[in-house]
Amino acid sequence: MSKALDIHRKLKGKIEIRPKIKVSKRNLGLIYTPGVVEVTREIANNPEKSYEYTGRGNNVAIITDGSRTLGVGNTVPEASLPVMEGKAMFLKLLAGVDAYPLCLNTKSKEEILRTIEILSPNFGAFNLEDTLAPKSLEIMEELRQKDFIVFHDDEQGVAIVVLASLLNALKVVGKKLGKIKICVAGAGAAGYGIFKILNYAGVKNMIFFDAKGIIFKGREGDNKYLKEIAKGTNFGNLRGAKIEAILGADVFIGVSGVGNLLKSSDIKLMAEKPIIFAISNPNPEVLPEEIEKIAKEYIFASGSSNFKNQINNIIVFPGVFRGLLDYRKKMDLALELKIAESIAFLVKQPKKNKIIPNPFDKRLVKTITLCIKNFC
User: pLDDT digit string (tens) for 3-14?
Assistant: First the structure.
């Protein structure tokens, strides 16, 4: 991985700010003083005109507190900066969105919320990233109540791309969404988002487990989001852990953050033609060679670009922010479902190693943006 260190050291950051106009003596008085005063007066009379006369309508703040940083977990906010710069880079590269990484030196929910409120005159939308659940879910809940345009990539982005991939994987193995058993490892922001969208899409049989074991109604010490998962899944109130959860499952979805969580003996407990989404980064819950010890017919996907099917929120967030900014709409489950179906439809003939579009598929941003535009 020394090459990754080398390129980051050489670049000293993956993004930069550039002017949109060539500045000259002739236009200086128009784009700066005294001409800019006309613009400030317009906006002072009507703050909404900031979307018309400034870059606000194309600006996204990527907010994190570093409490769930890729590869290192709960750490200093500075460690999140390379990841946030990467998000900003892809928003610009793929969707023309100007995004600003803002790694906050606080772990306080109240301070994060207040910071977003204070920053709001500068941005058309906010992207919540790499913040530990349930705090991140609480922040999202309060931001929605305050009428912000906000997208939680670890929750909603992962959920959308998981459902899109699952719809196509089921076509390949010849199974139906409403008749399968799904086992999900992990119940943080990503797990909660997956629960919400799969439940909304019509999945009847889901079992979730985390470090404490299977999530069931009445389990002690659970927060309100885990209790919501318990209410909408595991209708037999099954107890146990990984083995009990995965028994007979058609689909395994891993968002646990635990590499090598599954062994071939676990895969053996699954139904025929298993679908395995080992999404955790940088180390997936299982590798294909472990699956192949047991199953010859299977579908495997991970969150990494090292494998054929990459289930990563990079497929989703550029198009989502393009659409949210352009049409000033807010996300809900109905829109999430519509976007997932639209992404899945881009793969006309799904195959074992092709269930989801490539992140650089130029149709993605246009398809997602159009979906947001047309959604009522």
Answer: 889 999 999 999
Find the Cα–Cα–Cα–Cα dihedral 299, 302, 304, 305, rounded to 10°. 20
Which member of 32, 179, 224, 293 is catalytic?
32
Active site residue 327: no
Selected catalytic residue, list 87, 92, 175, 181: 87
pLDDT tens-place string over residues 231-253: 999 999 999 999 999 999 999 99
d(CA 158, CA 194) in angstroms, rounded, equals 7
Domains identified in the chain and CATH numbers: 2-24+55-148 (3.40.50.10380), 155-376 (3.40.50.720)
Residue with tokens 């294909």: 288
- Model confidence over 120-132: pLDDT tens digits? 999 999 999 999 9
* Residue 100 φ/ψ, nearest 5 degrees: -125, 115
State how far Cα 244 lies from the chain centre.
28
Q: How far apart are CA 226 and CA 105, in angstroms?
A: 28
Dihedral Cα 355, 361, 362, 366, nearest 10 deg = 30
Cis peptide upstream of residue 77 (ω within 30 degrees of 0): no
Active site (annotated) includes residue 192: no
